[in-house]
């Protein structure tokens, strides 16, 4: 008889790890520190776990996931939205750490997401800097919005904070450049990516950090992964409606800004955008199509290890 595989769901909090095993339903609790993580690793190895699933929680999951991967336990880190949808679909409306761990274990058993190798320390550093840049931009936008309606006494303090944020953004951009240059592989790839008109250091670093699959997937897979693939929304009286959603929002936001620039300065993207608009496509639809085209071009350039050359556009 074939032995039933064991799956583990691990809910990660700042100070605690809640672990549920399926199909036994066994529950394990540990502290989220070096000692607690070691105890969880020992237990999962003892159970010969086929797959451990953790939810992406802003980096809190990384120490436990890395320890499990190093110990040879297959690990998958999944999107929180996907977990919430799965919980609703299975009728799990209550929410506690133990219930969340049980949902993760059920998800591991039912969906069996593909384990992926974890990023090394250098890649995690680049991801952290990219994320910090995004956070500073969000704070800058929020403070700028507040400054428009704030009383004079408060607006002075907001303006002072805005000046500091702009200086901090410049410092983070410098740190981003340093991290990329320290890796010969990333430096080479960044040069290739930035050879495309409209692509600057921010998009190239974001793609290196948050879309490592760029050169390995086809254009449809990439579009779905980033969240720029048109998806059918035929329901009831609605027919022929296509929308884009999901995917890696950080990559999509940065790609959108780069595409706005490329639509003005990249002849291939500018011509493509103009042709779509002239044929009656709404501007947002045309811009989304340009995002897919730019993504496809960047992937081809990395695969071929050839800088941007307009005469080779058909090959992209």
What does this structure look like?
- This protein is α/β, with parallel strands linked by helices and 316 residues long.
- Helices cover 59% and strands 11% of the residues.
- The protein has 12 helices and 7 strands.
- The strands form 2 sheets. The chain has a 5-stranded mixed β-sheet with strand order 3-2-1-4-5.
- Helix 10 crosses helix 12 and helix 11 packs antiparallel against helix 12.
- The mean pLDDT is 88.
Characteristics:
alpha/beta, five-stranded mixed beta sheet, 316 residues, two-stranded antiparallel ribbon
Q: What's the N-to-C terminus distance?
A: 51 Å
Envelope shape = globular
* Unreliable stretches: none
Please give the order of strands in the largest beta sheet. Answer: 3-2-1-4-5
Determine the number of helices (DSSP H or I, runs of at least 4 residues).
Answer: 12
Task: Explain the layout of strands and helices.
Layout: E1 6-12, E2 16-22, E3 27-31, H1 34-46, E4 49-55, H2 62-70, E5 75-78, H3 80-89, H4 97-111, H5 121-149, H6 152-181, H7 184-194, H8 201-210, H9 219-226, E6 231-232, E7 242-243, H10 249-265, H11 267-278, H12 283-304
Parallel strand pairs: 1-4, 4-5
Antiparallel strand pairs: 1-2, 2-3, 6-7
């Amino acid at each position: 008889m074939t032995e039933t595989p064991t799956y583990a769901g691990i809910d990660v909090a700042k100070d605690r790890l809640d672990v549920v095993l399926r199909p036994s339903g066994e529950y394990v609790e540990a502290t989220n520190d070096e000692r607690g993580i070691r105890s969880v690793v020992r237990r999962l190895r003892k159970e010969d776990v086929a797959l451990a699933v953790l939810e992406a929680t802003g980096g809190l999951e990384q120490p436990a996931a890395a320890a499990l991967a190093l110990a040879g336990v297959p690990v998958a880190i999944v999107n929180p939205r996907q977990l919430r949808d799965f919980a609703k679909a299975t009728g799990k409306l209550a929410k506690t750490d133990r219930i969340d761990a049980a949902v993760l274990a059920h998800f591991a058993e039912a969906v069996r997401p593909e384990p992926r190798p974890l990023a090394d320390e250098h890649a995690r550093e680049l991801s952290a800097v990219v994320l910090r840049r995004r956070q500073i931009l969000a704070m800058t936008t929020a403070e700028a919005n507040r400054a428009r309606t704030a009383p004079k006494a408060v607006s002075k303090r907001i303006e002072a904070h805005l000046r500091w944020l702009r200086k901090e953004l410049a410092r983070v951009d410098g740190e981003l450049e340093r991290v990329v240059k320290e890796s010969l592989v990333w430096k080479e790839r960044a040069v290739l990516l930035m050879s495309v008109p409209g692509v600057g250091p921010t998009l190239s670093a974001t793609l290196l950090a948050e879309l490592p699959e760029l050169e390995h997937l086809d254009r449809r897979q990439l579009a779905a992964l980033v969240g720029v693939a048109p998806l059918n929304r035929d329901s009831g009286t609605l027919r022929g409606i296509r929308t884009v959603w999901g995917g890696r929002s950080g990559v999509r936001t940065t790609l959108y800004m780069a595409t706005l620039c490329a639509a003005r300065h990249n002849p291939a993207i500018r011509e493509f955008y103009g042709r779509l608009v002239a044929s009656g496509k709404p501007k947002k639809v045309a811009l989304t199509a340009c995002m897919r085209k730019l993504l496809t071009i960047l992937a081809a350039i990395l695969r071929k290890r050839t800088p941007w050359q307009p005469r080779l556009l058909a090959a992209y």
